[in-house]
Amino acid sequence: MPRNRQRKTYRGTKVLFLYEQAYEEVSKGRSIRAAARMFDLCHVSLTRYKQKKENASEGQIVTMGYNPASKIFTKDQEDLICDYLIRTADIYFGLSPKEVRRLAFDLAKHFHLSRPKSWDYKELASEDWFSGFMKRHPELSIRCAQATSLSRATSFNRNNVEPFFNHLATVLDRYKFEPQDIYNMDETGVTTVHKPDRIVTRKGMRQVGALTSGERGTLVTITVAVNAIGNAIPVMFVFPRVNYKPHFVRDGPIGCIGAGNKSGWMEEREFLLFLKHFVIYSNASLNHKVLLALDNHPSHITIAALDYCKSNGIVMLSFPPHCTHKLQPVGRSVNGPLKKAINSACTAWMRSHPGRPMTIHDIPYIVNIAYPIALTPKNIQGGFRVTGIYPYNRDIFDEMDYNPSFVTDRPDPVLTKPVEPTNEFCTVAPPALSPSPSDPLGCNWPAEISEPTHGERVNHLTANLVDSSYIEPQASTSHAEILSLDILTNQTTGNAFASITQTTKSRKTETSTNTLGYLASSNDPLAFDKPVESLFSETPMILMNTCHNSPNETLVTNHLLESEVTQSKKAKQMVLSGAVDYQARPSTPVMGTSYSMECLPSSSRAVHFSPDVVRPLPEAPPRKNSTRGRKKGKSAIYTDTPEKEAIRKAHEEKLRKKNAEGVKKSLNKTKNTKGKKINKQNLKEKGTDSESDEEKYFCIVCMEAYSNSKSNEIWIQCSECHEWAHEDCTPQIGFSYTCHNCESNDSD
After folding, report:
1. How far is CA 51 from CA 24, 406, 474, 559, in A?
2. What is the spatial distance between Cα 721 and Cα 25, in angstroms, rounded to a whole number?
């Protein structure tokens, strides 16, 4: 069957409103054909509508047109699937088309929906179903996902972003910076192997090629600094050369500078050189302070750089770690156009120099062409605007931007304080109840509620709150049937509810409806509110349900089994993920003895339709409090005295440890060289490679030079004067050799 079937007629496309008007004309006495011509309808269709209308019962809706083909999922169910796919894409765990087809099959199988046999054979939904599903939901599209590191996706959250905007507001209020005094700098790499532009060629070609300089290029770091009014400071190059020459940047942009090191990356010495270059073009001084926002790379946060910034009026503010892809203006609106312009310039250079590979000395010329194209005032100002730095806007990011951190949104064990367990209001459920003679049920009753008697407690509290020995058995409450934990999901909003139930059919209790469960008695004096977080405690105190009272069924709680604890965690994930709006509910959960399920059909004990039941949203395990690894960075004003002194103290401690290790190493080296036997090859490895060095060593017995000794001939060193001699020339062999000169001095 073709997926894009073209209609050949317009039958069945008329709106129902025209049939209703034509039927009214027929009722007034007009003929069917005349009424059909008046409203441009088929007279046969109008006749059929008239017959349906006359035979319809009161309140029945009459429809016209072709009935759609049989569907596996209803419209509401497909809407839930659509919302689930959007939610997974928002948290960067989107599903591919094949995974969506597998999800559809799992849902149809789990909820026992009728489906084609080919689905069961392939364990996959058909391509026709997926194509139709995408057409029925135009808000969905297939996109190529951009690779985002786990650190960036999880680190960009409110806990990291809020301190940055707090520090930014502090420095803006303290120094009253103008837009021309707010700068941002960042490094980016340019290689000699570029990414070619798109070209025009013939159709049908499976592979289209373009020339580059080589397989792997050499990286040159360029440092870009811009301010909020759209101006840019001349670029700085860092070449992978130990011996940097000034002519490396001869063809670069006007005013650019360069430096070199072994790696070609920004290091402490090169960053200090950039700061001196920055002071010249920003006019920074103690009387005219400027703000420099940058990432917290180790080369930026050194005591030498901070001292220079402090003495030259540079206020250094760092971004949170792994958040520069959202907060850094250069990364948001400058680096992308700059890389694209550099690739275009590299393509033009390769065309102008056929057969010649590009080197690092050609990169300044290429950057000189691309720099004015990319660093326009419009691009620079747009970067400061979308990051909320200038104009200052701390609410620039909404919940959609923070969604990727949902997977690892869990409390920090260092910042989280342990909560004392208490039963009051059931805010934190204790691991076990401790009955006492005055309080045999182990509950701390609120002060505003009069403490009930023991019998009232038994009648109003659920069975799982107390030990079975505290409840007097009644004849009407025998033979309780334990049901399973169900995750009930509202079909229109995707709200999840958990129920742990035990059914008793003989006892009748009047109950009142509560949206989240806990249907208490209408005259229950013990009902009180509890916060939402307490609904997901792993203790058997908490129930949730959406039903009305029933004279035949009364549900009481039961102790959680291990499997039920696991499913309650899934319910927590579904409800607290953001899909449920508790504010829209009429009331909060209250505590009571019993509730019923009259509002649900007989099949309500099965799990309601929800994709979260088949494939729950991913959730990271709890954080581990570990002190291993590199110290975690943070957003801070590093030029402030407390931060700078903390860095100075850490720097001094690092130097102290390094010096101690050096002293220890030198002592071990001196200890191991006493009386050590070496051969000619070992001596060469110690730095005696040249012939001039070899001439310095000679045997103190036979006076033969080391350069004239035989291969693999063993030499031995005196433990006193550290002179060398052949092992064959020495009368004593061992690790405590002392030459004859030193022995004669000792005898004297």
Report:
1. 13, 57, 62, 60
2. 128
CB-based contact 233:225 (threshold 8 Å): yes
Q: Where are the domains of the chain?
A: 1-67, 75-136, 162-198+214-396, 409-435+453-620, 669-747
> Tens of pLDDT along 167-196?
999 999 999 999 999 999 999 999 999 999
Q: What is the DSSP string of 217-249?
A: PPEEEEEEEEETTS-EEEEEEEES-SS--GGGG
Query: Taking every pair of C-alpha atoms in the chain, what is the biggest distance, in angstroms?
Result: 149
Asked if the bond preceding 372 is cis, omega within 30° of 0, the reply is no
Is 464's pLDDT higher than 50?
A: no
The CA distance from 629 to 636, in Å, is 21
Asked whether residue 720 carries a pLDDT value surpassing 90, the answer given is no
First to last CA, the chain: 114
Instruction: Give how far the C-alpha of residue 269 lies from the chain's centroid of Cα atoms, to the nearest Å.
Output: 34
Run of H or E including 318: strand 314-318
Q: How far is CA 103 from its chain centroid?
A: 23
Closest CA to 185 of 224, 220, 222, 238: 224
Homologous superfamily (CATH) for 162-198+214-396: Ribonuclease H-like superfamily/Ribonuclease H (3.30.420.10)
What is the distance between the alpha carbons of residues 269 and 257, in angstroms, rounded to a whole number?
Answer: 14
Q: Residue 271, Cβ neighbours under 10 Å: how many?
A: 26
Cβ neighbours around 40 below 10 Å, total: 10
Taking phi first (over 0 means left), then psi (-120 to 50 degrees means alpha), and beta for anything else, what does residue 12 get? left
Measured between alpha carbons, how far is residue 346 from residues 192, 213, 222, 632 in Å?
8, 10, 16, 39
Count of other CB atoms within 10 angstroms of residue 493 = 13
Residues 237-270 pLDDT 10s = 999 999 999 999 999 999 999 999 999 999 999 9
Cα–Cα–Cα angle for 297, 301, 304, rounded to 5 degrees = 140
- 669-747 folds as Herpes Virus-1 (3.30.40)
Pairwise CA distance, residues 321 & 574, whole Å? 29
